[in-house]
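A quick aside before the break. I want you to see a complete sequence-to-structure record at least once, exactly as it would be stored in a machine-readable document. Don't worry about memorizing anything.
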Amino acid sequence: MTANIYREISRLIQYGLKKGMLEKTDCIYCRNRILKVLNLTEFDEIEIVDENLETPAPILNNMLNWAYENGILESNTPIYRNLLDTEIMDCIMPRPSEVIRKFYHLYEDSPQKATDYYYALSSHSNYIRMDRICKNQVWKVKTEYGDIDITINLAKPEKDPKAIAAAKNMASSSYPECLLCKENEGYAGRLNHPARHNHRVIPLTLNHEKWYFQYSPYVYYNEHSIVFKNKHEPMKISKETFDRILEFVEKFPHYFIGSNADLPIVGGSILSHDHFQGGNYTFAMEKAFIENTFTIKGFENIEAGIVKWPMSVIRLRGRDRREISALADFILNQWRQYSDEEVDIISHTSGTPHNTITPIARRRNELFELDLVLRNNRTSSEYPDGIYHPHKELHHIKKENIGLIEVMGLAVLPARLKEELEKLSYYLIHTDQEVQLQKEEDLQKHLQWYYELRQKYPSISVNHVQETLKKEVGFKFVTVLEHAGVFKRNKKGKEAFLKFIEFLNK
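That is the input. The structure line, written in tokens, reads:
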């Protein structure tokens, strides 16, 4: 049994060498660090075959199984395994200073070479758990707004009952203050906070302030990155936001970057720490064309237009990022105070602000481009979750906030849908089983949709049912986005949007 763990240690060292995470002169040092983590005091050299693994997951799984069998791992459950495997991976990781130095050395040659290196390291180190990401179900759906991306998120580990119970007895801790704080770099983790032994971050300067760059451990698209403020300060959309994201795409022209809105319901899941999300991916929103062009007095050098998109989007384009930022700030301030009760847009109730913006920046060759998505977080007795939020009839597909990722055209859907869609497929084919369908507790929320699909596809075949359901999920997501749009896509809504543009020119 001990020989088996020696073999896995040697395999991991070989993996690190092949991925450029360590050099030959580091091997004994790294091996001894792993021995310490696994409470081993001996080691025998074992000859291993040459491998070309893309992820260390197979090696780590064997090591974790050995650790559990030998009493090193307290519980053989996901959270406990994550805490140990990140500690093991840290043994073959370069120090933060080495990563930063190499990143900026490569940056001098090419920003893309720098991010290529850093993304590869984040993947090879198992910080981005590619073996889990691959479990996500991903597809595209053609719509009138372009090819919408759909993801059923299966990558996040399931809740661990034993860890949850143990966490209740732990002393409370406010370190790190949140999941985005820089103090997560190298943090060992605990049962109620993810381990980040193998995490490295890159310092940036944006708008003369210190920020940090990292990748999301749950990448929903290519090179899904997070840029977060040095200080733990709440989200705030302002001119400084526009300055920062436009400067970022000046420094990294192959990336887009955007910010969640700064108000509940229309914001992201973490409003307590100012941050952006970016990456090397082209969403349907970026490809969407401008259906109405206009100019704003005093900013005649900036191209402006309304984007054909299910939400309400103003696109700005020009060569001078500072001028674009100034115009975006003007639009933001005007929108913050704008009301149009004819279309149910009210900027304030009892002094509480409701209007804000979700901004997205990118480069188009030599031009800077900034999309401003108009948002409103007001609720009502009819729509307690939000007037401009997925309404109740859509909650069977999506009831979470419509954040930056969804705004751009990527639906991140809950894991429950995988099994529910498989069951729906069965009942759409076996229409004589409706009595049994009525007994399926987890399908009750889909019943109305089921009957709509039956009417639309009266004789759906086994060969087409899965693709049909995927397509219909995409159409549902478009409706979700339309619900989140403050100016609806009907004639009245389009006229109201143009009315706001006229307001900008008063």
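Two observations worth writing down. The CA atoms of residues 149 and 419 lie 20 Å apart. The longest strand covers residues 355-364. We'll return to this after the break.
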